[in-house]
Amino acid sequence: SAKHNGRNRYARFTQEMQAHSTRVLLIENALRSALENDEFTLHYQPQFCLANKKLVAAEALLRWNSVSLGKISPAEFIPIAEDSGQIVAIGEWVIKESIRQIQQWKELGYPALKVAINLSYAQFQEPNLAPFITDTLQAHQVSPKLLELELTERIAMDDPESATDVINTFHKLGLETSIDDFGTGYSSLSYLQKLPVYKLKVDQSFIRNMINDKNNLAIVSAIIALAKKLGMSTIAEGVETLEQLEKITALGCDEVQGYLLGHPVPPDEFEQHHFSHFSDIHQRKMG
Ligand code: C2E
Ligand code: MG
Ligand code: MG
Ligand code: MG
């Protein structure tokens, strides 16, 4: 009967909800010992300048191989760490580890490469963030010019006045900032104009759909044009095909990041692929 079906559906829904909250609790618990067990690593994904095809930076992306749960994607555990407050300690580890890596690359004699790290809202609200970053940079004798901070639209728009203050503090310290996943949040254009950010990262959902969907193409084109007018630069995320690469180049985008030109990889693989012969890669992939 319909009633019976309804009850089954309800039972299934309840089961799914329970399974979901069990998983969240498991992850939250496993995260508690992840730092002391040394379960995190950073992978690095290259970013290229479209005008000269050179490697300009790498984005550091967090990877977690949990002793109890195995590999878990940041798309799953970052929101949980944000809700539980664990993201602040995890984020400090990311800051320390990325700066340590910049120092190590310098010591190995590689060309100086900027590293971009992702910051969560909760980290941004910590008054200690800026001093923590500068202390860590100083301890490793790394220039602030080599660290870029990727902020979310939420950081920028929730409290634009104090966000502007914090971003200005970063800039005075020599740290560049960008807005990640731009276009997916609730940015108000009037605040965007006041925010002293350097770069907009065009969200990959627009890049993915722009070839087959005129509206998405219009959005990408508008974001790039807007950034230019506001004196900001742009990077297209999630570029997977040559067609997408050609399109963003034609639209005047400044930089590119995506599987077409390089996946996020551990530091040793990054060195092999992008430091030793990165000019060959451009020639092969970018013509
Ligand atoms: P994000 O910062 O927007 O990073 C880009 C994501 O897109 C990464 O996913 C990257 O692996 C993926 N990606 C790059 N190129 C392509 C492509 O061509 N195609 C497709 N389909 N995907 C591509 P990942 O590493 O799984 O990270 C997911 C999100 O988790 C990040 O999105 C970021 O919001 C968050 N995250 C990662 N590491 C950290 C971290 O250290 N701290 C914080 N707060 N968040 C982080
Ligand atoms: Mg990012
Ligand atoms: Mg992004
Ligand atoms: Mg994202």
UniProtKB/TrEMBL annotation:
Residues 24-278 form the EAL domain. Coiled coil: none annotated. Keywords: c-di-GMP, Membrane, Transmembrane, Transmembrane helix. One of its GO terms (molecular function) is cyclic-guanylate-specific phosphodiesterase activity. GO terms for biological process: cellular response to nitric oxide. It comes from the Bacteria. This is cyclic-guanylate-specific phosphodiesterase. It comes from Marinomonas balearica.
